[in-house]
């Protein structure tokens, strides 16, 4: 089965909501657009990705949220039209659901509670827990592995901070504690997974590990294995 040379995940650019929280009370989250700085960030991200993939073919998946769609449009302008082999909107990599139009005081209280409870299991009223996003991202990974991608191609996934980290958690089999120790990348932060030629597994670049604070999490993929090895058993039993 053909496997991509790289999987590149990108958080969307800075949005109007990132700088004006009041907008979340007036506009559906999925319709909030990039601000001018976010548009520039997306263009710069495309330039950086072009330097990585050069002339190699790419397949692009993006969240349906407006800020991710705009990031995608800006980003792919830095690529050659001929190298874009496919482009798809993918709802399963959308932002965590916070419960429709937001009340600022309520959402701030919810986020304060989440900081104590943990991002993975805390569920927003009428919204999602990190676990819910993990489940739908896991389904997307299954689709990604079944898609007929060209050997030696690159996959670009334009998504959101939490969904990006949960994608990595699922792929690299991080524990909940290892996930909780990470943090979101900056707007238009780029996470790069490179396929190892010797065994076909994927490894996160050091820049990616530093960007999200994942120094203590596994950086080489173990997806597809039924169980982890004895080293993990020994660590688990030591608690």
Structural summary, described in words:
Pfam families: His_Phos_1. Substrate binds at residues 11-18, 67. It comes from Guillardia theta. This is Phosphoglycerate mutase. The chain has a single domain (6-237), classed as Rossmann fold. 40% of the residues lie in helices and 13% in strands. The protein is built from nine helices and six strands. Helix 2 crosses helix 3 (66-76) and helix 5 crosses helix 6 (161-172). The longest helix is centred in the first third of the chain and has 18 residues, at 36-53. It starts with 5 loop residues before the first strand and ends with a helix. The model is unreliable at 223-227 (pLDDT under 50).
Quick take:
This protein has helices spanning about 15-20, 35-55, 65-75, 105-115, 130-145, 160-170, 175-180, 205-210, 230-235, and strands at about 5-10, 60, 85-90, 155-160, 190-195, 200-205.
């Amino acid at each position: 089965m053909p496997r991509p040379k790289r999987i590149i995940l990108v958080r969307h650019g800075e949005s109007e909501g990132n700088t004006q929280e009041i907008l979340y009370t007036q506009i559906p989250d999925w319709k909030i657009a990039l601000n001018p700085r976010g548009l520039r960030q997306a263009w710069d991200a495309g330039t950086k990705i072009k330097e990585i993939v050069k002339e190699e073919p790419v397949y692009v998946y993006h969240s349906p949220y407006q800020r991710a769609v705009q990031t995608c449009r800006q980003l792919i302008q830095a690529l050659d039209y001929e190298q874009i082999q496919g482009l798809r909107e993918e709802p399963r990599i959308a932002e965590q659901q916070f419960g429709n139009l937001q009340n600022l005081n309520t959402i701030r209280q919810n986020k304060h509670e989440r900081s104590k409870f943990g991002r993975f299991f805390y569920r927003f009223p009428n919204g999602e827990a990190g676990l819910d996003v993990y489940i739908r991202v896991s389904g997307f990974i299954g689709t990604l592995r079944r898609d007929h991608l060209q050997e030696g191609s690159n996959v670009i996934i334009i998504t959101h901070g939490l969904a990006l980290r949960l994608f990595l958690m699922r792929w690299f089999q991080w524990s909940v504690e290892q996930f909780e120790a990470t943090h979101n990348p900056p707007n238009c932060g780029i996470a790069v997974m490179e396929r190892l030629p010797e065994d076909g597994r994927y490894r996160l670049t050091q820049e990616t590990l530093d960007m999200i604070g994942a120094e203590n999490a596994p950086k080489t993929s173990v997806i597809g294995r039924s169980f982890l090895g004895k080293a993990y058993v020994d660590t688990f039993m030591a608690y």
